[in-house]
Amino acid sequence: MENDSERQNGTAPTQSPPPRRLVLASQSPARLGLLRQAGIVPDVIVSGVDEEALRADGPEALARVLAEAKADAVAARPEAAGALVVGCDSVLDIDGVALGKPADAEEATARWKAMRGRDGVLRTGHCLVDTATGHRASAVASTTVHFGEPSDAEIAAYVASGEPLHVAGAFTLDGRSAPFVDGITGDPGTVIGLSLPLLRRLLADAGIAVTDLWAD
Asked: How far is CA 27 from CA 38, 70, 94, 125, 207, in A?
């Protein structure tokens, strides 16, 4: 109900605009979990992009191309109208070679035997599309991973769990392979699948504060 001064001045109470809707163009539960832990509850629309059909010159470029393809595919859908769409994709860079999800258990085993005791760079591409304004920007976050030296038996047990077949680089920091990673240099979110600091910067460039996306 309006108070006396509002009736006299002919003004109505001001209301804050509703928070912008964020759409995650990824089916990754790890990315969704990172956003929720940061107070953001996005909708999820899977892009359906054929990742194997995309090519680029080097791991960093590939991570960006994949993220852009996912974000663009979802942003073009009617159900994403008016939303902020975020697409992400990760690849492991070992000596300039891009490694995504292993094709099978044999490949996952060979990969772990080859990278144990070495360093790799996990590169995660991010693309933000504001479907309300047409603003689009992308960037890549990189974090160095220092792999431990699991035994052949430990590698076999890990591969048998099935986990490495579903994650870029055949490992993750928040799963069963965590004991086999000695440390990282950089943002852990990049390795898990989404760099929150980079997302904040992309949002800021679009004129949006990440705090405005926090759920009540």
From this structure: 18, 11, 25, 15, 27
